[in-house]
Amino acid sequence: MSKKRFIKLYRGENRMAEKIVVIGGVAAGTKTAAKIKRENSKAEVVIITKDAHISYAGCGLPYYIGGVIEEERELVVKTPEDFKLVTGIDVFTKHEAVKINKEEKNVEVKDLTTEEMKIFPYDKLILATGATPFVPPIEGKNLSGVFSVRTVSDALKIREMVDNGAVKKAVVVGGGFIGLEVAENLHERGIGVALVELIDHILPPFDEEVALYAQNYMCEEGINIYTREKVLSLVGDEKVKKVVTDKREIEADLVIMSVGVRPNINIAKEIGVEIGVTGAIAVNEHMETNIKDIYAVGDCAEHVNLVTGKPAWYPMGSTANKMGRVAGINIGSEGKDTLKGVLGTTVVKLFKLNAAKTGLSERDAKKAGFEVETALVPANDKAHYYPGYREIITKLIVDKNTHRVLGAQVVGEGVVDKPIDIIATAITFDAKVEDLEKLDLAYAPPFSMAMSSTIVAASVLTNKLTGRVKGIGPIALKNRLSELQIVDTRDEGSFMIGTIPGAINIPSGEIYMRADELDKEKETVLVCKLGKNAYLAYIKLKELGFEDIKILDGGMNAYPFERE
Amino acid sequence: MSKKRFIKLYRGENRMAEKIVVIGGVAAGTKTAAKIKRENSKAEVVIITKDAHISYAGCGLPYYIGGVIEEERELVVKTPEDFKLVTGIDVFTKHEAVKINKEEKNVEVKDLTTEEMKIFPYDKLILATGATPFVPPIEGKNLSGVFSVRTVSDALKIREMVDNGAVKKAVVVGGGFIGLEVAENLHERGIGVALVELIDHILPPFDEEVALYAQNYMCEEGINIYTREKVLSLVGDEKVKKVVTDKREIEADLVIMSVGVRPNINIAKEIGVEIGVTGAIAVNEHMETNIKDIYAVGDCAEHVNLVTGKPAWYPMGSTANKMGRVAGINIGSEGKDTLKGVLGTTVVKLFKLNAAKTGLSERDAKKAGFEVETALVPANDKAHYYPGYREIITKLIVDKNTHRVLGAQVVGEGVVDKPIDIIATAITFDAKVEDLEKLDLAYAPPFSMAMSSTIVAASVLTNKLTGRVKGIGPIALKNRLSELQIVDTRDEGSFMIGTIPGAINIPSGEIYMRADELDKEKETVLVCKLGKNAYLAYIKLKELGFEDIKILDGGMNAYPFERE
User: Fold this and answer.
1) What 8-state DSSP symbol labels residue A172?
2) Mutate to test the interface with A, among B178, B440, B455, B540 (most CBs of A within 10 A)
3) ipTM exceeding 0.90?
4) What domains are defined for chain B?
């Protein structure tokens, strides 16, 4: 069957109007299209999408599976009909863009319902092709009951299985945000959930001690987490029955593959659109590709990391919307709006625990060549006397030489999105840690401590940078337990309930009197709940001539105790 | 009785140690003292305070009255004994500093229990004398049942009256934060509460439309609010019975005077410490006064407003702590730490409504000589499909010429402290509104919209600055109702339920077809719920040649409808 015979030309309503074609109709595509039309109401804008839905809430899918979001319609921000009515943009759902003819400036599109081919001429073309879940090439990946979670259709099918009681045991492969959110939501539906992660800990973008804090929490909530474990195959006949890893076999009626996504770049690559080092489409700060009149936005396009100034790829809805607005202004009114870069700011809710991150992790900062200093500081999210306050732990990462803030992670049951957004804003303006310390943030007991968690963390880090105090990270301490003299500076009661293996107990108030119980020559680590008592003991021991002393960063709560 | 005969010299434990005297023992005083001692453990630090308590949670007092904070001990961060044990600092409670001898470098102190006089020599003196509620000189102000809310003792007495059932009706005089918080907490205890405010609206630092939003909310919750009303006298014999204003008499068993605080500067003024234009003690960025070795911190000291660069006075616990740390570092280790200024960032919870502010209000910005543009933009605090999302309204104030962000106010049932802290951080770094639009903030449905409220507000303001759209404020609209052609662009159902007086209804989808119902020559205002439909209609009417059109800033929810 020759394509040509079926090709129809899409003319639109006005042959003379500027013609804009957008490939992709989720966040970035619809945002770009709508903004162009608002800037230039005479333009004819069409959206082409393979999907049955447009403008849906991709980030809401795990919550639909869990029933937190009850109705399918809540996921779909706009139907194509409503979208047309409000914006005047024609949407072609179940239409696949199969080829771009860059010389002729048109796109060949296949109607997936009729198999008919159509030609869409363009003056400007916007690639908003998104990203697709990567499914590793393992045996059994096509069995029934194996899903990714990317589209509304995925979520509908999974929810249906769960609603029908067809799922008793589920395995989630991959410990990133979507995998963890789905694990939580399945668990809340009464399903036994195991999660398998290839690397050392869940939440791969986070540093180990923060990720382990979240991991222990997830385990306590009842998710079985297996890290450093590789899925080899999925077994079953027709329907999946179990997951085989390099260490065990796990029964499963449902398997969620969630090991990451890859940008959809094929249609772009074929015509010579430049692909960046991250594997996504390279764009400049105006969202232009290397080919004139072709733009790329959203999950298919590459970004610049504002801290390193280097290419990075963060497929996120928040960034997609910003790229869409910039492209829309530039195309719709020949503006020169820019998006200089992003920080990869993210947040996730895991049961009652929240974890957020912005900028570089300690690991990434070192990889990028920075000499770093870090602080890991527990604090409350609200005044300690106001009911309902919760603990959060802030990790700050700064450049030791310039004191510039490079990144942060905040984890805990308390509010984490506020401090991470504050720090993300500060990093955007090249803040130093001393700047963070002096921020004038909103304080009232129901909202914050008088010294907010960010300010406290910055103060601790300043103390480290100026040599007032030395710290040791919880992972480093755990790895060197046998070599160190560890002093638990809390009261005896707390000590008796539980402490770091090998620690002796000298409450900070008694440290002057009892310092002779310690070996002055030995490398000593002071620990307490939050770090404050250890800091007070540190000052006293310094005064008494102790030289090789450190305090445990993050206090007892950040220490990765073994689960029983 | 001659003072001299009773004077004792306080020598401390070590005559050779550097002697530090701190006058005042709440937030700034204790923070400074503790930081000095940590920096220089050999220093002898004493705190002198009139109060019976130190280091108490002043901002928690309204919540103690309401029983949200149950126990008195939760209000007191540290007892003097605990404080001494942990820090090594001697605290003299119920001791009043009566005179500073700057030449001899000592302070004359009266023991309020024994009436004995004591002399405290100092090498460095820190004034942390705080502020005192201003009570206007009206008749009856000394009646029983009339209180300010500043100290733990005040709160204890009020709580006791409430607990004993002695209060049926209360009047709060003053619509600032403390007054409103006390009003809420009394109301929650089942007491009938009226609030009297001298100016046009409660929340004096806020702009009128934002303040009125909060005011209507408080009224709906059952607080009787009387604005533009002056309290003339309090009436009763021994116990207060009613409040007489210039418009009415209000029965009351309890009167809370909360019309503001004044810095305690007398002891400083007497020896020639410079008082700033705000009436508080002038300090440089190191917290030094004009007199060598005398510092001032906390509510008695003046600040610099980071936006105007001019003196300002914001008596707040968060600022007090920062000033204390800076002074502590500079005194304790001869550092040169600085606090360049503050933004007056504040937040208050009023029942389920939250209101926050940073930087300049529109009114203050104009007063400071800025030509301003503003946006008033409703948005949700979380994804609209995630259960529990709430509306907030963001007001942004920017310099029309430079686009620099000057201030912001956020009000609503949703999260307001996060956006205000983001904007406060941005203002600290001289952000332009275009910078706000591009911030990479944390997004996940339980925490934010994909386009966060701050980004949406910045986009609307950018649209106004670039001339894409013109707006009219809700107060201005209300004042000009009869002159304007008002078009409600919502659907007919919403229009029927209620609209702006005089508005006609043309849903934005029908505006092309029905534009001829409008008078093209007349100044036209488009209104809708949030502003989006009005914006779409605006674009279409512009296309049709309408010139004098505006949209209602903040949408219907920000319009100050009359209460029935």
Assistant:
1) E
2) B440
3) yes
4) 4-131+263-332 (3.50.50.60), 146-259 (3.50.50.60), 356-465 (3.50.50.60), 471-558 (3.40.250.10)
